[in-house]
Amino acid sequence: MPNSPDKNSFDIQSDDSIAEHSKSVAQQSVGIIKPETVQFNQPLKLVCGKTLEQYELVYETYGQLNDKRSNAILICHALSGDHHAAGFHSAEDKKPGWWDSCIGPGKPIDTNHFFVVSLNNLGGCSGSTGPNTVNPETGELYGPDFPIITVQDWVESQARLADVLKIDIWAAVVGGSLGGMQALAWSLNYPERIKHAVVIASTPKLTAQNIAFNEISRKAITSDPDFNHGHYYRYNTIPSKGLMLARMIGHITYLSDESMGEKFGRDLKTSAFNFGYDVEFEVESYLNYQGERFSKTFDANTYLLMTRVLDYFDPAADFDGSLQKALEAGKCSYFVVSFSSDWRFSPERSEQLVASMVKAGKAVSYAEIDSPYGHDAFLIPTERYMAIFSAYMKRIAKEVN
Amino acid sequence: MRADLNLIEPWVKPNTQVLDLGCGDGTLLAHLKAKKNVNGYGLEIDEQQITRCIEKGVNVIEHDLDARGLSQFADQQFDTVIMTQALQAIRRPDVMLDEMLRLGRQGIVTFPNFGYWRCRHYLLWHGKMPMSKTLPHTWYNTPNIHLCTFKDFEVLCRQKGIKILNRTVVDADFEQSRFALMWPNLFAEFAVYRIAR
Q: Which residues in chain A have their CB less than 8 angstroms from residue B60's CB?
């Protein structure tokens, strides 16, 4: 990693190596991808009690579905992700999809063997029905009136997408962070429809500290004068300052002290202190750039929603807090991966999940990858991560093909 | 096929829950799964070995026994807890034996016998810590920090009230020789113990 990164080289993900890696393996790309949209007219009753009468999901697919329709993999995205997980949307695209490091020919989720489905979740802001789409009842954008979604609701909507694609059983549901929660929920809500759940850098529930960080993010957004109680589209404003702050806070929790130290140290943008409050350290510049860029591309209401989805996730809650009891419904094999420097969803959270899986007698394998990149490590193709992820996926490929 | 695995297999009942502490590349668990349809888990710390386990389809959990212990597992959660050729390499073998029998109804332990006549001979003749095909490390870099003899192990079991249900003693090729059967602490190189409370 460069010690004094050039501002223009900053990637939306925290690490430039993702983009560099993607370039170097361009021949391993799924190529140019065209997203699809599917409209659902069957009402979806949500956990919160409200009902979405109709909704759209946008998704992409990579690879070929085999004759037995047994090689399908569902990719679940995290807080700021979307359906564009791999490949490019046009020949001019500089950056591939958010998980191009792991999806493609010869990569862990090998599109030579698997048919990969990646969608933008309900409540997202990249094409699926969410706060920034039109509410058919009012003819206006949903905004803050978009109902609160849960991981369970996502699984339900994803199951309907699977129905449309005529996929009865997923060979695997795979996700990192919030995506891992969806993989876990799939295994419990539709145990007959999933063979493997790959749960990476995730947790069975948020800690008080996690929720606290989310609350700061929400406060940053809702206290922005341009937020207008979430109806900012009406006023033609964007709470970009608040969203920027939220992203800056979030971003710190995605990195580690070590990786920030390695990347920026105490490097200054100028040769000496200016004895003022403007941006002076490289790390300040980086965070400001990341926050600003994010605030221009992401929807604030979706950000609020995603943090709540995270907060509410707790499959043990319906079982007197017993994760072991919650897991008893599961029938699939689990692969759980954590990263040593991840302090957002630390290895201890994954170990707790794995111990409960063992107590429940579930088939599970677990690896803690030694990585300096914090929570974001699940996006970065480090050697051991790729080796063990590939080994597990190859085992699945052998089973289903 | 490792020869010691054949000695362990008869002591594991079909369709039971097995935990293998320091499971290596998962050979034993894969074998027990194929032969006895056990539901097995292996704990391992070595990265390469963990990947080998995953390739074999063995349930493997990355775990540092010395650093983390076994507290996250419940009492009597397993039918059999196995530890092959690792007891001598962990920090507190005595605590580990207690933990094995807390988690499992029975334990199976294998380890090299430091009372083997070649070890005794080496020390007596050379005056240096014994090295052999079985114990190839020098004293300063050996992972085997708690070597013991069969007698040492059995004394510890007695002190702890651990019952030795079976003991199979073998020579370096895992064969049962007449000498080894007669004077195990002198002529056997390995033992497989089945223990319980």
A: 365-366
